Each structure stands twice: as structure tokens, then as C-alpha cells.
Amino acid sequence: MRVGFIGLGSQGAPMARRIVEAGFPTTLWARRSATLAPFARAGATTAGSPVELAAASDVVCLCVVDDADVEQLAYGPDGVLAGLRPGGVLVVHSTVHPDTCRRLEDEARIHRVSVLDAPVSGGGRAAEDGSLLVMAGGDAQVFAHCRPMFSAYGNPVVHLGATGAGQTAKLLNNVVFAAQLALAADTFALGTSLGLDREELGRVLPKGSAGSFAVERVAAAGGTLDRIAKHAGGLLAKDVRLFAEIADSAGVAATGPVREGARAALRVMGLG
Questions:
Q1: 189-193-195 Cα angle (round to 5)
Q2: Residue 123's CATH number
Q3: Which of 170, 207, 230, 238 is catalytic?
Q4: What is the sign, positive or negative, of the torsion defined by CA atoms of 220, 224, 227, 231?
């Protein structure tokens, strides 16, 4: 399986490195040549454009920021769909609206190409050690075909259903995380009001029954969401709003502790 990979950020770069190290012939493309420099001796090749990368690949993975980036790379005469041969697969690792992936699938059928949405969770460190959570949607046989590649950087790798299902699961995951961030920050504020030292409380809460990844992140950030807002607030806000869109479209109630908590987190971070 020849793999093309676009999106060599803090999470995508270690994913691509794991693919190369697993022995898959790999082609990379990036807007900035400096992004490709670390791979010069790794055994990967580079392409001059997305369409050129796709022509050299059986499977192309996109790990970019948002829906607009995915669409820009996929469509048009220089896009990935124009370069993939019939039988090829486009994998969307980005976190985007499920409908974006369904529209891609409709367009891909014209080219006799398949689409899998496969957002991931865990961050760069999990990508480096091959323990990303991969949440996939799409045809089960296409998923089985791509699973050896997913296993290069993912564990567990889960197939959730039709195209868009992976994105829905990832957005649910991120909405719960946002709500937990709000709870954790409020807990630290309550503790301070009751005379507890934030740093000492940060040593306690992650180890008790209240412990969670969100509590750990807030504790590491000094008990507030300021640092988290600076580094990840924009992406988290995007995902909370995407989930609100799909929930509203499905007629899911706008109230409830998860959605209220997620909105509270955005307000605390100055993003809601």
C-alpha cells in the first residue's frame, strides 16, 4: 500500500513518521518546505502538489485544521481526488463536520474512489508511541483494507459505522472534554475560595476519583483555563460549534449537562 500524507503538524508529523517506519512507501506534500526537512532521511519521498502526491499513492491521508482546508486539498484539478486512481482511498483524519465527509464521498464516487473519515484523539505524544485513538466511518471493507496503516499509529482503531460516524464520535469526545474542563476549572476556583492551595489541590484531584484527562490538563495549567485557551481554545471552540450544528440538525435538545458544560468552557475561555 502506497500512502500519501498531507498535514505534518504536531500530530500529523509523528503519524507520518510511524507510517514510514512501518514500511509503507510514503509520499509527503506540504506548503512549506521546512515542514518536509525532518523527513529527508526517513525514507519518504515528496511531491510537488496534492494531485501529484495522490497519483503516487493508493491511500491519501489528510490531517489538516478544518473543513476549508480539507475541501481545498481534495477538490479541483490540483486536488487529491483528481490524482487518485480508481480504487484509491481518501482518509480524512481532520476533525470536520460529518456532512463535509459525506459530500466528499459523493464527489469521490465520480472518480471511483472511496472516502473514510477517521479523526484521531491523543495528541502528538500518542502519535509518537502508536497509541492514538482512531475513530473511523465508511465502508467496512475499505476500513479493513486500511486498518494495517491505521495500526501503525493507532490503538485502539474502531470502526463506528457509515461515513460521518467517526466525526460524530470525535465531536462527542471533544464536547465531553470541554464540559470537563469547565467543571475542573470551577472546582479549582471553589477550592481556592475555601482556602486550599491551587498547587496542592492540583496534586490531589488528578489522583482521586475526580481524576480525568481534563483535570490533569487544568492542574498542569495552574488550575485555570488561561493556558489551554491560548494553545487549544480555537480548535476546541470549532468542535463545540460543529457539534451544536449537527445536534440541532438532528433535533437533539440544546440543554443538558454536556452541552451546557461545553458552552461554559468557551465562555470561561472568552470564546463563547
A1: 120
A2: 3.40.50.720
A3: 170
A4: positive
Q: Is the pLDDT of residue 253 over 80?
A: no
Q: Taking residues 47-54, what's their average pLDDT?
A: 98
pLDDT tens sequence across 12-37: 999 999 999 999 999 999 999 899 99
How many domains are there within the chain?
2
Q: Are residues 46 and 112 in the same domain?
A: yes
d(CA 128, CA 123): 9
- Does 35 share its domain with 110? yes
154 in the same domain as 178? no
**Is pTM, for the whole model, over 0.85?**
yes
- Report the C-alpha gap between 248 and 270 in whole angstroms: 23
Strand partners, 161: 137
pLDDT of residue 132: 98
Answer yes or no: do 14 and 128 share one domain. yes
Question: Cell numbers at residue 1, please?
Answer: 500500500
The answer to whether 170 is a known catalytic residue is yes
